[in-house]
Specification:
With 660 residues, the chain is of the alpha+beta class. The chain has 2 domains: 165 residues, Butyryl-CoA Dehydrogenase, subunit A, domain 2 (Beta Barrel), CATH 2.40.110; 329 residues, Up-down Bundle (Butyryl-CoA Dehydrogenase, subunit A, domain 3), CATH 1.20.140.10. The chain contains 23 helices and 13 strands. The strands form 4 sheets. Strands 1, 2, 3, 5, 6 and 9 form a 6-stranded mixed sheet that branches. A 3-stranded antiparallel sheet has the order 4-8-7, with no helix packed on it. Strands 10-11 form a two-stranded antiparallel sheet. The longest helix is centred in the middle third of the chain and has 36 residues. The chain is globular, with a radius of gyration of 27 Å. It starts with a helix and ends with a helix. Keywords: FAD, Fatty acid metabolism, Flavoprotein, Lipid metabolism, Oxidoreductase, Peroxisome. InterPro entries: ACOX_C_alpha1, Acyl-CoA_ox_N, Acyl-CoA_Oxase/DH_mid-dom_sf, Acyl-CoA_oxidase, Acyl-CoA_oxidase_C, AcylCo_DH-like_C, AcylCoA_DH/ox_N_sf, AcylCoA_DH/oxidase_NM_dom_sf.
Length: 660
């Protein structure tokens, strides 16, 4: 315990100022603290024993916490954003996450004003509970392959929804299995011909007794990965047997079906269909920084408490965090958590701006934010999922215990790699966007936003790295230039190869692995550039900016070293310059070490939210590991099964020994 107290005493920056920056401002910081304290003190949000609960107990716990969150949101007059923070702090997923993060945003982006006037008051008051039913048993990422049909019946002015095959069964929507009363269902719109996949609002359960409607088969798909994980969520399946809905239940912002059955396309881009996805991915980006910071907090604190091996002079064993091998594992992840947070805060502002444009039918920013949220969702969730496991391994054997909090965190987080867009396919989409931007540059407007660096593609693909000594890498703009050159060179090289194909789509298919590489380079550049941009602003607090500068350089250099092959293969830098980068990165770890505990404290996670014995704020790890073991109901003086299975073996062996 004294180790963490000593670590905090040696901090050289204003921890409270860093907490405010992480929270997004002083008001957000104080409000977060208020909600976090409220959640930690409320018995409904108790997290004890979660890994040992049955599926039914997990589900009931989830819906009870959701109900309490709704009560508090009304009682405290919380905005939707603040209510989302409350749901995050309860640290238990339930149906309401999907209702607010998918169902409501889709209504806002895909419904007409008239439809919004009808449905939004019902949804935002939770007079109805919604889910998002897109994925099917046989199709996920390939939305155009969905099989559910919605056929118009002009005699009754209704659509008839049907599940024509087993593989057309809706599969995976959170909240669908047990709770949702309504679903936004993606189905093929059939008039005189198939008009492709469109979104419909469909009631699936009675608002009187909650029973499924007669033409609907619905249920839960079963237990998922992990002890607790996401098993508090009722991911469901759904089949339609000629289910009738009013024609006006088609979300018509993109296209209208008239009373006569005529299909009329609206003057909006087809990408508006991704409005709900964009909203969800913007949230996912912030969640990545949150979950990564949790894992890093646990691992860094435990590494400061844990001591292994000692000096020959008989002094105390060495803190594990003092070993450079441990620093190499954890400090880049610490820097990445800050990088993702700053990128997430930037994305929140961009999303708000684009949504305001949406309301005035200005869709000019849609392509940019769609590509941006797709790429950042992919890069942040991929890195975070791997990083949680890295942190678990960095905690040694104790990290394998559920009481460490890391196995549960991993189980709950890894679906983010797949939901709201498989990461590999998202990278391919972003790669295509970048290549098309390059190929269209001569006849299209100058690239803006996150692809603006491509306007200087000639410079980035000809100018090489000028680093000549170790310390040159201390300039974050030097690191940023390297990432711009790498991204531009990979993209330009691939665009030339794509042009060799007679059919562009054939090229994209053949070179999809390279598209992923181009997208990864682009997304890493976005995150790094937003970190560098942040450093150009006024950042209050003693040495806060200095610490962020250090973390920014560690983030950039750790990636540069990890992807060294790209920087060398594109001809931007030499092996000796790469060696200087590695050397400088190692030297930065010693500058982070004195502030490592203060930097994870700045994430401002309560013990309740962390849910980890190893990551306790007070550092009293071993006492509570032992207490957790004693509390396990599995422990007893004589184990169950002794008489039936153990005693006969022992007695038999005793008898044989006595005969000898």
């Amino acid at each position: 315990m004294e180790d963490l107290a000593r670590e905090r005493a040696q901090a050289t920056f204003d921890v409270n100022a860093m907490r405010i920056l992480w929270a997004g401002g002083e008001e957000a910081f104080h409000f977060h603290n208020k909600l976090a304290s409220l959640v930690a003190a409320d018995p409904v949000f108790l997290k004890e024993n979660k890994p040992r609960l049955t599926r039914k107990e997990l589900f009931l716990g989830g819906i009870s916490k959701a109900a309490r969150c709704r009560e508090l949101a009304i009682e405290l007059g919380l905005s939707e954003g603040d209510a989302r923070t409350l749901r995050t702090l309860r640290d238990d997923r339930a149906y309401d996450d999907l209702h607010w993060n998918m169902f409501v945003p889709v209504l806002r982006t895909q419904a007409t004003p008239e439809q919004q006037r009808k449905w939004l008051p019902l949804a935002t008051s939770m007079a109805i509970i919604g889910c998002y039913a897109q994925t099917e048993l046989g199709h996920g990422s390939n939305v155009q392959g969905l099989e559910t049909t919605a056929t118009f019946d002009p005699s009754t002015d209704e659509f008839i929804l049907n599940s024509p095959t087993l593989t057309s069964t809706k599969w995976w929507p959170g909240g669908l299995g047990k709770v949702a009363t309504h679903a936004i269902v993606h189905a093929r719109l059939i008039l005189e011909k198939d008009y492709g996949v469109h979104a419909f609002i469909v009631q699936i359960r009675s608002l009187e007794d909650h029973k499924p409607l007669t033409t609907i088969t619905v249920g839960d798909i079963g237990v998922k990965f992990g002890n607790g994980g996401n098993n508090s969520v009722d991911n469901g399946f759904l089949q339609f047997n000629h289910t009738r809905i009013p024609r006006t239940n088609l979300l018509m912002r993109m296209a209208i079906v008239t009373r006569e059955g005529k299909y009329v396309r609206q003057n909006v881009p087809k990408q508006i269909l991704y409005g709900g996805m964009i909203a969800a991915r913007e949230i996912i980006l912030m969640e990545a920084s949150l979950n990564l910071s949790r894992a890093v907090t646990i691992a860094v604190r435990y590494s400061a408490v844990r001591r292994q091996f000692g000096l020959d002079d008989g002094s105390r064993e060495i803190q594990v965090l003092d070993y450079i091998t441990q620093q190499q594992k954890l400090f880049p992840l610490l820097a990445t958590a800050y990088a993702f947070r700053i990128a997430g805060q930037w994305m929140e502002l961009l999303y708000s701006e684009v949504m305001s444009q949406f309301e005035s039918n200005d869709f000019s920013g849609l392509a940019e934010i769609h590509a941006c949220t797709s790429g950042l969702k992919a890069i942040t969730t991929s890195v975070t999922a791997d990083a949680i496991e890295q942190c678990r391994k960095a905690c040694g054997g104790h990290g394998y215990l559920c009481s460490s909090g890391l196995p549960e965190l991993f189980a709950a987080y890894i679906p983010a790699f797949t939901y709201e867009g498989d990461n590999t396919l998202l990278f391919i989409q972003v790669g295509k966007f970048i290549i098309k931007t390059i190929l269209n540059m001569r006849r299209s407007p100058i690239p803006q936003g996150t692809v603006e660096y491509l306007t200087d593609i000639d410079i980035h693909t000809t100018k090489c790295c000028e680093v000549s000594q170790d310390d040159d890498w201390s300039n974050s703009n030097v690191i940023l230039d390297a990432f711009k050159a790498r991204a531009a060179r990979l993209a330009l090289s691939l665009s030339k190869r794509i042009q060799n194909f007679r059919n562009q789509d054939d090229g994209f298919e053949e070179l999809s692995i390279d598209l992923v590489k181009v997208a990864e380079a682009h997304c890493q550049l976005i995150v790094l550039s937003k970190f560098v941009d942040k450093l150009q602003t006024n950042i209050p607090g003693l040495n806060v900016k200095q610490q962020l500068q250090l973390l920014c350089n560690i983030y950039g250099l750790s990636l540069l070293c990890e992807y060294m092959g790209d920087f060398l293969a594109t001809g931007y830098m030499t092996k000796s310059q790469g060696s200087l980068a590695r050397s400088h990165l190692r030297s930065l770890f010693s500058h982070v070490r004195p502030n490592a505990i203060a930097l994870v404290d700045s994430f401002n996670h309560t013990d309740h939210y962390l849910g980890s014995v190893l990551g306790r704020y007070d550092g009293d790890v071993y006492t509570h590991l032992y207490i957790e073991a004693l509390k396990d109901p599995f422990n007893s003086d004589v184990t169950d099964g002794y008489e039936e299975y153990i005693k006969p073996i022992l007695k038999k062996e005793v008898m044989q020994v006595s005969k000898l």
